[in-house]
Each structure stands twice: as structure tokens, then as C-alpha cells.
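Lab meeting, item 3. Inverse folding demo.
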């Protein structure tokens, strides 16, 4: 199974991922990061079959 870690590149995102991977290591995980408040970051994820996807510290805006 593949692993993909998605997080924003600010201190909160980096620290959240670091703490998680200290507890649950995935040395072969691919990293996808972006700038703070990059709400389109998950749109860059194209292949998710057979992939453990971890999303940390992303801002999501919803229109009502």
C-alpha cells in the first residue's frame, strides 16, 4: 500500500505531521505540501486507489 501525507507548509502542518510520524512511522510516504490556506491542495491528489491518505492542518472553505 502507498502512503501520501498532505499538509500545509506552515509550522502547524509540519509539527502535526512530525508528531504523527514519530508515533506512526511511514518511511516510504510521499509528501504533498502547500502554502498556508491552500484550499485547493487536495485537488493535486490524483491517484488514491491502494493509498493511505493522511491530511493534516488544511483549511477548508465552504460556500453556503
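The presenter then showed the designed sequence:
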Amino acid at each position: 500500500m502507498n502512503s501520501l501525507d498532505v499538509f500545509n507548509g506552515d509550522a502547524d502542518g509540519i509539527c502535526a505531521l512530525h508528531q504523527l510520524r514519530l508515533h506512526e512511522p511511514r518511511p516510504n510516504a510521499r509528501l504533498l505540501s502547500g502554502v498556508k490556506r491552500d484550499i485547493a491542495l487536495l485537488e493535486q491528489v490524483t491517484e488514491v486507489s491502494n493509498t493511505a491518505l493522511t491530511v493534516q492542518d488544511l483549511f477548508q472553505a465552504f460556500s453556503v
